[in-house]
Amino acid sequence: MQIDYLVNHAHLIPELAQLHFNEWGHYRPNDTVDARAERLRACCGKNALPTVVVALSGAELCGSAMLVANDMDTRPDLSPWLAGVYVKVERRNKGIGSALVTRIVTEAATLGVPRLYLCTDVLEALYARLGWSAVERAPYKGISVTIMTFDLLCSSSFKPTPLCDAA
């Protein structure tokens, strides 16, 4: 398993856009796969904000994660965010999601980010195991989400995982 910047694998953007659309398209009723692909292209930073990383097994796309300025339009005061953590169904429960999260935390640490945020409606336990803390439960686009934080300056729980190869 390798984790690398999406910008180095731009040919995967259409596939990733489709996967993200299938997973989260309901949050943007007027969205399209093409519009999502354009947003992914715009986030293709490298050692920058925004950044998208992908998990690969050989040439196969297995998952993704993003470091973005904001992920909840109702909370513009919180920044930056871990977002777009996605692992293909057949690749789940193998540590890929954890490795993607760790890679984004590493990216944020490299950029000098003191604190990261995320929102989740179902994976609070996973993020808690990775050292994230719940700070707020809030309604967002018709569902209840948990906003979580990761303090990079004070966290003793942050340890890069062996699955996460620097690229």
Structure explained in plain terms:
- 32% of the residues are buried.
- This protein is of the alpha+beta class.
- The strands form 2 sheets. The chain has a 4-stranded antiparallel sheet, sandwiched between helices. Strands 5-7-6 form a 3-stranded antiparallel sheet.
- It has one domain: Gcn5-related N-acetyltransferase (GNAT) (Aminopeptidase, 3-Layer(aba) Sandwich).
- The N and C termini lie close together (12 Å).
- α1 (13-24) crosses α2.
- The chain is globular.
- It contains 4 helices and 7 strands, in the order βααβββαβαββ.
- The longest helix has 15 residues, at 96-110.
Concise overview:
With 167 residues, the protein is α+β, with helices and mostly antiparallel strands. The chain is 26% helix and 30% strand.
Throw out a few tags for this protein.
167 residues, alpha+beta, Aminopeptidase, 4-stranded antiparallel beta sheet, 4 helices, globular
CATH topology category name: Aminopeptidase
CATH class: Alpha Beta
CA distance, first residue to last residue: 12 Å
Oligomer: single chain
Mean pLDDT: 89
The major pleated sheet works out as: 4 strands, antiparallel
| Number of domains as seen in the coordinates | 1
The CATH architecture designation is: 3-Layer(aba) Sandwich
Order of helices and strands: EHHEEEHEHEE
Low-confidence stretches: 156-167
Query: What count of helical segments does DSSP give?
Result: 4
Radius of gyration: 15 Å
Say how many strands there are: 7
Q: In what range is the share of β-strand residues? A: 25-35%
Can you give the helix content as a percent range? 25-40%
Helix and strand composition category: alpha+beta
Structural shape: globular
